[in-house]
Every structure is written in structure tokens, then in C-alpha cells.
Amino acid sequence: MKDKLFKNILPKVSKPARYTGNEINIIKKDWDKAQIKMVFAFPDVYEVGMSHVGSKILYGLINEKTNHIMERTFAPWPDMEKVMREDDIPLYSLESYKPICQFDVIGFSLQYELSITNVLNMLNLGDVPIFNTQRGEEHPIVIAGGPVVFNPEPFADFFDAFLIGDGEELLPDFLDELYQNKQLSRYDKLIKLSQVEGVYVPSLYSVEYNTDGTINSFKPNIESVPTTVRKRIVKNFDESYFPDKPIVPYMEVVHDRAVLEVMRGCHRACRFCHAGTVYRPVREKGLNTLKEQAQNQLCNTGFDEISLSSLSTLDYSRVDKLVKDLIEQYGDKGIGVSLPSLRVDAFSIELANEVQKVRKTTLTLALEAGTQRLRNVINKNVNEDDLFKAVEAAFKSGWLSLKFYFMLGLPTETEEDLNGILILIDKIRAIGKEHAKKNIEIRASLSNFVPKAHTPFQWHLQDSMEEIEAKKKYLKSKKRKNVKLSFSDSRTSYLEGVFSRGDRQIARVIHSAWQKGCKFDGWSEYFKFEPWLESFKEHYIDPNFYTVRKRSYEEITPWDFIDIGVSEKYLQIENEKAIQEAQTPNCRDVGCVGCGICPSFEVEMEIEEEGKNAAESRI
């Protein structure tokens, strides 16, 4: 197949480097000696998948530290898919060029709900039955992990198992268990796998619904299967595996740089944030560990940028020291350091200027809401004084381009809150005119709020598409000159809302939409809304049931059986405090606020202390 690919197929498609493999630092293990053969499947194009940090961790971990194999495959772009179907080329891995149907396990990473149609398309291209009930003894076990699977139910019919929690903790155990039971039937293997903590096998559970469409009961079909599935976490984050030799693509990818995951989890307790809840507790890496990882990656890749990755990088205890040390060591070699969007209250102009020494970038600040009242509702503990001090310092230091993140449709949002966004931007422009030496550029990116499972807002209704469009129209009508506003698509947010809190009945809609040609739904040039609406109608499912309906605390949610360690009582209290516009401080400053994660998992936050590394601080 390799010869046919290179001679007949790849010359016909755009960006053939997506499909060739053989990159620097690729790992090719002996196929015949491997215990379990797994292909890691990313349901998006190569450039996106190769930028995902979790993929790099799992690829290195399984290949370097276990006797199993992990190879890679990505969603082919439509021009490549067309040629593959015409020439009968199955979806294959980039390491061995073997069809994905020849592997023991196909593991998808679900980072975004709308990538699900690409999953179906990839299975179909790989000659693997789409529904788990159609797979026999000869087919691979199809699994998924990632943030989306904290509510796996809308996708339950397509997967044999879901892995809930930190993959580097769970995946090796899963593969070991599968190898030890390889001689069993497919059904018996799945029963064994369901007993590994963090593994959910949907075919072993049944759901009954009430006449109004809500869930009446959810329970396992056999006694040995657990009634709840508890997520897995890495308890010693500082000593957890991280790749020293990540693959270097032969083409430009979205994030073409070395990455340091400085911490995992977040202590801020923003009430809208899914990742901030499901990835608790906070775990930091030691300063020396990170500097060593930076050195190893730079030596083995030739990257000229280091990105500090986490949910809230400025909250990393020793971020100033880390950035200064990295700039001091690598700055004169032209290697820069980049930071993601920043919290206003944690902003440090000295730190931002340090980053600017090597490479000029746009300064991005996350505000989320236009008024203090609404920021209190969502527990975004920042105020205007912090904001104005930050932007004044930035303009005085020579920054000319600033970007701000906001959300539309947050619970209790009013016209006054929308006006607040515009007023804030006006004030920022005025500060820029006073302190900047040249013309300034201000951009505001407005995404649509989608309530997520396992958050304090999981019971709230979502703004309808009409409401979101009205808010967009209002803001555009009031927009000032020299300010760029960008908005998310209300239709994709609507679908995301359906999937985020959906149940098993959604699967048939997803399958119908894929049959009608839906794929790459996260890409505006390929997104088609009408087939989705037709599919909902064909199956007599009202999508509004999942989005614009307020839920009671008593209702059984599709994700109730997943134990993330954060108690539902805490989420309810946080929801009530949101209505009262009351804030909850972060637990690092005031101590435990009662979310339940630390006692539930018998852990403490791993915080890097001055003069010690994380491991030492635990002694």
C-alpha cells in the first residue's frame, strides 16, 4: 500500500505531508513483538492533531515505557478521502501503513463535541463497523478519551469503552488488562475491562426513560460491572511521563513549538468552566523538571519557541522564575517563550515584557463578562482596577495590539452586561490613546456560552440561536471604530449544547447527519446545518430539549454515574451563589472551599514552593 500511496495517491492531494509519516522522532516498534497494537486516532486534520499535547504524551509513554505499540492516524482532508475511496485505500497508520482495522485497539481523542462525525467517517474509511453492536471478534476495540467523554452518553453506541480521566494513568492499565485477557471472547474482554477503574463500557449498561424524555434509571446489566465510574488522576504530576523527543512534523502545524505543561487542574472555580472542574485537583511540576524538559525538547527538535501550557499558566507558583530562566538561557539563541491567554488579576507586565524580549506577540487577556455583576455570577474574580492597571502598563511598555475574550449568553446576562463590554473597550481605547506611542489595535473575541456537564451551570438553559443572534446584532450596531469584534457561530454552539448534555438517543441523529454528508463540523467551510436539522426531525428528537430547558436538581442527568470527585452538593451551592451574585475565593488563598476533590481522591494540591521542587515539597 505504501508504494501505491506515494506513486499514485499523494501526488493528487493537497498537503501530502499530512499522510506520509517518517517524521523526525517517529517511533517504529516491532509489530510482531508487540503485546497490544493500538492506533491513536485524532478526529481532525494532521495539523490540529499534531499540536495536541495529550497525544504527544500518550504516544511517547506507550511506545517508550510499555511492551505495546501506539501508532497514529488522522482524519484525511476531503480531497484525500475522495481519492482513498476511489482507489479503495483504507485509513492507515503513519508508522506501519497498516489499515486501522488490523490493530487491536483504535483510540480516539475527543477534544470537541463536533468532531464526532469525523470519528464515524474514519471508522468507515478504516472498514470498521460504526456501531459497537455490529462489531465481532475480528474487529478492534474502539475506545475514546479526552474532555468530551466526561459525558459520553451521546456517543455511547459508537464506542466499546471510554477512558475517563488522565490518560497516562489509565491507558497502560487498560492495555495491560486487554493483553492479559486476549484469549477471551469480545464480550468477556469488555467485562474484564469494565472493572479497570476509570473505564466505562456503555454496552454493559441500560437506560430507561420517562414519558417526558428525562431519564428514569441508569444501571449496569450484570452484577460485576460497577454502578459508577470513577475518573483516574495522576497523583505525582512532577514525576509523570513527559516526552523528551516529540515528533517534528515536516509541515507547519497549528502549534509548532516545544510545550511545557506547567500544571494540571485549576483552583479558580469559574462556574462556567468544564476543564476547571473535571481536571481538579491542581498539580504543579517542579521548576527543575520543567527546565530539564525544555532542554531535552529543544535539543531533540530544533523548535524556536517554548509554550507554557495549562488552564491558568500565570497561576503556576514559579512562573516568573521559570520564564526569566528560560529567556536567560535561550533568548540569545532566538528561542522565545509564549504564554496563553492571561488572567487580568494575575497579570505581570514585567513577565509580559520578559516574553517580548525575543518575540513580539499580541497580548491576550480573558475577561469573559462586561460587568462586575456578571463576573461575580460566573465567579471570575477580576475587577476593572486590575484590568485598567494591566492595560496601562502594557501600553506604556510598548504593546500596541491587545485582544480580549468575552462570552455571550451567560446565565442572568442583561442588556446592561452587553453594554458593559462596549464600555470596557471604550475605556481601554482611551487608556491606549493616552499612553501608547502609536496607533493601537483592540480586538474582542466573543464566544457563545454552552452549559457543560459537571459544572455549577449544568442545570441552566442555554441561549437560543435567536437570542444569540440578537445579541450579536446589538453589539455590532454599537461597535466603535478601530475595534474588531469576532463572534462564534450560534449554530455550532447550539449543536455543541445538544451533545454536551445529551443522552444516548442522540446517537442515531449523529449517524443520520453523517450519512447526509456531515463531517469536519468544526470547520466553517464544511459545516452544514440543514442535514442536522433534518436528522433531528427524522428521529422525532427535539434538540431544544437538551439546550433551552432548565433542569431541576432532582433530575437524573446522563452523566450522573461518572464520579469526578467534585460533589454534586458543591455544584448546587455554587449555582445558588451564582444567582445571588456571590463569589467563592480560590482554595489556594483561603484553604478548602469544600468541592470534595482532595478527600475523595485522598490527595493534596501539588504546589511548587520557593527553593524546593514539587517532589521535595511533599516530603
Automatic annotation (TrEMBL):
User: What Pfam families does the entry give?
Assistant: Radical_SAM (PF04055), Radical_SAM_N2 (PF19864)
The family database entries (CDD domains) matched by this protein are listed as: Radical_SAM (cd01335)
InterPro entries per UniProt: CHP03960_rSAM, Elp3/MiaA/NifB-like_rSAM, Radical_SAM_N2, rSAM, rSAM_horseshoe, rSAM_sf
In what residue span(s) does the Radical SAM core domain sit? 252-485
Q: Which GO terms describe its molecular function?
A: catalytic activity; iron-sulfur cluster binding
Q: What name is this protein filed under?
A: Fe-S oxidoreductase
